[in-house]
């Protein structure tokens, strides 16, 4: 049996294209070939289970070996094997039509995966690193003869009688000069560990030396001996392939440790398992969030039939869930996946919606089942829920029942509960319910205490996403406004149409304004004399709610750069009814008036953390001199 021929792609340009455009990601050749080998073993196992193969299966496995001197890498399996006719069918006739059109279309391609993924060229990725590829194979079929196939990277091939004596296939790569980095134990181990920790077929890569107990010496000390063992790559158990009923909490936690060895235990997890209208399994974990949110992104691993593909899962997992950890496995996503594929594929969009739905259902279940425990987790999961409510309308509709507000007294309320709580005390003259919030309870404590004196409640909004969440909730809830507690003096935060009487005459008001403007002497601070409760602070410094919100969004890169570039502008409200103002007016000389005014203003800044540097030093020195 000997035959020569030409691979039926009608062009001489296919291999240069593969070599050139796949070079940036050339390690995927090993992923492709080992995956093919594993598939071959799974298929023979399936045939045996159906009674279509009655021979001895033996221990099904894939083996990777390399020879640095001969410059070869060999991928072997004891799966189905192939006949010469099957080689012609599966190897020579690449599964696409119009090869000339293919070459023309992709001659300028930049995405390596786009080429391989679209046309099923997995086997041909071998030529990314090889100057010649040889196949030695023997089919499982009765009476089959061994066959070999050799191709040197041109479109010419040779089929002849093979040398293999047992069922299965060897793919032998003769590594080219540019790819000799792969003729390394370390390099190959690294790639195999990356892609095949959970491969369903036993994967062997050479041997490794381990220490084993070997009795004791005469003093009773334990002795050890070195033992050579198979180096098995895929020892980890892929729990996402098991039924949730067969797993305990300890199994999920142990698996999490295998994925993320140095992480704290997760808060909880969701086991995904669906077979219609697409196939998907997986486990998603809710981690405890750290300050460095970006560090925790890209921790979801995407698999296809237990072979790792990528941890870039943005199009499969909704953006707001990118901080989750775990595994998703779908055979409906090909190994050679590209971003363009993900964005266009209908199954991917369905998977995205399904994951959103499952996360919402899990959170709703936790909330209903054990609300106190759910509230304890809110500091960690709140950012997920709020981000989802902002970015996904379908998620918002479900999450409005389990999304929580937390106030400065560490109490938790659903959206509906909170409106009921505050509407009696915090409805303004126009019928708007005003929610007050703080981003920093320590710095804004004076404002919080002032609000509480009027029986107002103050929400805690101190996560990176809360600035956007505040605006979103305001748009969603009818007749609701949100104001930061330091956006104005307390009497003006919720305008109920009530007017306090002014203790100062018109001339006195003008005089006080002049004294403070001269003492402050900063254009960014606009002074106004207000009629306020005498118990309120003598001076309050605020920034308009709208302006502050726009500046906060600009600082987060929210597309408000115009506001971010504007200079800060503050309102200085002088409590005309406070006794200190009367004291300033009664002072004997202008220098005393100025000193008192400046001290009162600096106290207001100090209480908000706005007094720094030389101004803070000057304030301390003045305070010492006044003691």
From TrEMBL:
<feature type="binding site">
    <location>
        <position position="77"/>
    </location>
    <ligand>
        <name>ATP</name>
    </ligand>
</feature>
<dbReference type="InterPro" id="IPR001404">
    <property type="entry name" value="Hsp90_fam"/>
</dbReference>
<keyword id="KW-0346">Stress response</keyword>
<dbReference type="InterPro" id="IPR020575">
    <property type="entry name" value="Hsp90_N"/>
</dbReference>
<dbReference type="Pfam" id="PF00183">
    <property type="entry name" value="HSP90"/>
</dbReference>
<dbReference type="InterPro" id="IPR037196">
    <property type="entry name" value="HSP90_C"/>
</dbReference>
<feature type="binding site">
    <location>
        <begin position="97"/>
        <end position="98"/>
    </location>
    <ligand>
        <name>ATP</name>
    </ligand>
</feature>
<feature type="binding site">
    <location>
        <position position="32"/>
    </location>
    <ligand>
        <name>ATP</name>
    </ligand>
</feature>
<keyword id="KW-0067">ATP-binding</keyword>
<feature type="binding site">
    <location>
        <position position="36"/>
    </location>
    <ligand>
        <name>ATP</name>
    </ligand>
</feature>
<dbReference type="InterPro" id="IPR036890">
    <property type="entry name" value="HATPase_C_sf"/>
</dbReference>
<dbReference type="Pfam" id="PF13589">
    <property type="entry name" value="HATPase_c_3"/>
</dbReference>
<keyword id="KW-0143">Chaperone</keyword>
<keyword id="KW-0547">Nucleotide-binding</keyword>
<feature type="binding site">
    <location>
        <position position="169"/>
    </location>
    <ligand>
        <name>ATP</name>
    </ligand>
</feature>
<dbReference type="GO" id="GO:0140662">
    <property type="term" value="F:ATP-dependent protein folding chaperone"/>
</dbReference>
<feature type="binding site">
    <location>
        <position position="339"/>
    </location>
    <ligand>
        <name>ATP</name>
    </ligand>
</feature>
<dbReference type="GO" id="GO:0005524">
    <property type="term" value="F:ATP binding"/>
</dbReference>
<feature type="binding site">
    <location>
        <position position="82"/>
    </location>
    <ligand>
        <name>ATP</name>
    </ligand>
</feature>
<dbReference type="GO" id="GO:0051082">
    <property type="term" value="F:unfolded protein binding"/>
</dbReference>
<dbReference type="GO" id="GO:0016887">
    <property type="term" value="F:ATP hydrolysis activity"/>
</dbReference>
<comment type="similarity">
    <text>Belongs to the heat shock protein 90 family.</text>
</comment>
<protein>
    <recommendedName>
        <fullName>Chaperone protein HtpG</fullName>
    </recommendedName>
</protein>
<dbReference type="InterPro" id="IPR020568">
    <property type="entry name" value="Ribosomal_Su5_D2-typ_SF"/>
</dbReference>
<keyword id="KW-0963">Cytoplasm</keyword>
């Amino acid at each position: 049996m000997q035959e020569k021929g030409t691979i039926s792609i009608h062009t001489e340009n296919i291999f240069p294209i593969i070599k050139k455009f796949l070079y940036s990601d050339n390690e995927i050749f090993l992923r492709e070939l080992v995956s093919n080998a594993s598939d071959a073993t799974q298929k023979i196992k399936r045939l045996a289970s159906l009674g279509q193969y009655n021979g001895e299966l033996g221990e099904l496995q894939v083996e990777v070996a390399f020879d640095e001197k001969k410059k070869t890498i060999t991928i072997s399996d004891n799966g189905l094997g192939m006949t010469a006719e099957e080689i012609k069918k599966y190897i020579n006739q690449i599964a696409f039509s119009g090869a000339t059109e293919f070459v023309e279309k992709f001659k300028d391609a930049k995405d390596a995966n786009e080429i391989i993924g679209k046309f099923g060229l997995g086997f041909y990725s071998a030529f990314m690193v090889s100057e010649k590829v040889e196949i030695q194979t023997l089919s499982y079929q009765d009476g089959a003869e061994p066959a070999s196939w050799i191709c040197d990277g041109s479109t010419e091939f040779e089929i002849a009688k093979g040398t293999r004596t047992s069922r299965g296939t060897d793919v032998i790569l003769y590594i080219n000069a540019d790819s000799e980095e792969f003729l390394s134990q370390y390099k190959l181990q690294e790639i195999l560990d990356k892609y095949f920790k959970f491969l369903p077929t036993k994967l062997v890569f050479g041997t490794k030396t381990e220490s084993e107990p070997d009795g004791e010496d005469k003093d009773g000390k334990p002795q050890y001996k070195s033992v050579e063992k198979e180096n098995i790559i895929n020892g980890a158990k892929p729990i996402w392939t098991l039924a949730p009923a067969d797993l305990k909490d300890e199994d999920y936690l142990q698996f999490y440790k295998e994925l993320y060895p140095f992480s704290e235990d997760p808060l909880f997890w969701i086991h995904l398992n669906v077979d219609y209208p697409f196939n998907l399994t997986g486990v998603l974990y809710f981690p405890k969030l750290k300050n460095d949110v970006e560090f925790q992104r890209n921790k979801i691993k995407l698999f296809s039939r237990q072979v790792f593909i990528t941890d870039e899962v943005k199009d499969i997992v909704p953006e707001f869930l990118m901080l989750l950890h775990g595994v998703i496995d779908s055979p409906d996503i090909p190994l050679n996946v590209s971003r363009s594929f993900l964005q266009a594929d209908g199954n991917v969009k369905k998977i995205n919606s399904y994951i959103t739905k499952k996360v919402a259902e899990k959170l709703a279940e936790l909330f209903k089942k054990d609300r106190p425990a759910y509230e304890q987790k809110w500091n960690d999961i709140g950012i997920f829920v709020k981000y989802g409510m902002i970015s996904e309308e379908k998620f918002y509709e479900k999450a409005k029942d389990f999304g929580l507000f937390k106030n400065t007294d560490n109490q938790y309320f659903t959206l509906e509960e909170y409106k009921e709580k505050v509407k009696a005390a915090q409805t303004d003259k126009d019928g708007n319910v005003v929610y007050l919030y703080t981003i920093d309870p320590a710095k804004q404590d004076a404002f919080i205490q002032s609000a509480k004196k009027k029986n107002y409640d103050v929400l805690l909004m101190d996560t990176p996403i809360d600035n956007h969440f505040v605006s979103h909730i305001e748009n969603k809830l009818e007749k609701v406004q949100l104001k930061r507690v330091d956006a104005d003096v307390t009497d003006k935060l919720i305008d109920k149409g009530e007017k306090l009487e002014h203790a100062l005459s018109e001339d006195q008001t003008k005089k006080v304004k002049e004294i403070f403007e001269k003492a402050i002497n900063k254009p960014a601070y606009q002074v106004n004399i207000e009629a306020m409760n005498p118990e309120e602070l003598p001076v309050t410094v605020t920034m308009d709610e709208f302006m502050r919100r726009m500046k906060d969004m600009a600082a987060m890169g929210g597309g408000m750069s115009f506001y971010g570039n504007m200079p800060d502008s503050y309102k200085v409200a002088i409590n005309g009814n406070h006794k200190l103002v009367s004291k300033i007016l009664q002072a004997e000389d202008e220098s005393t008036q100025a000193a008192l005014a400046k001290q009162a203003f600096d106290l207001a800044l100090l209480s908000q953390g706005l007094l720094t540097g030389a101004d803070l030093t000057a304030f301390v020195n003045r305070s010492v001199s006044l003691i």
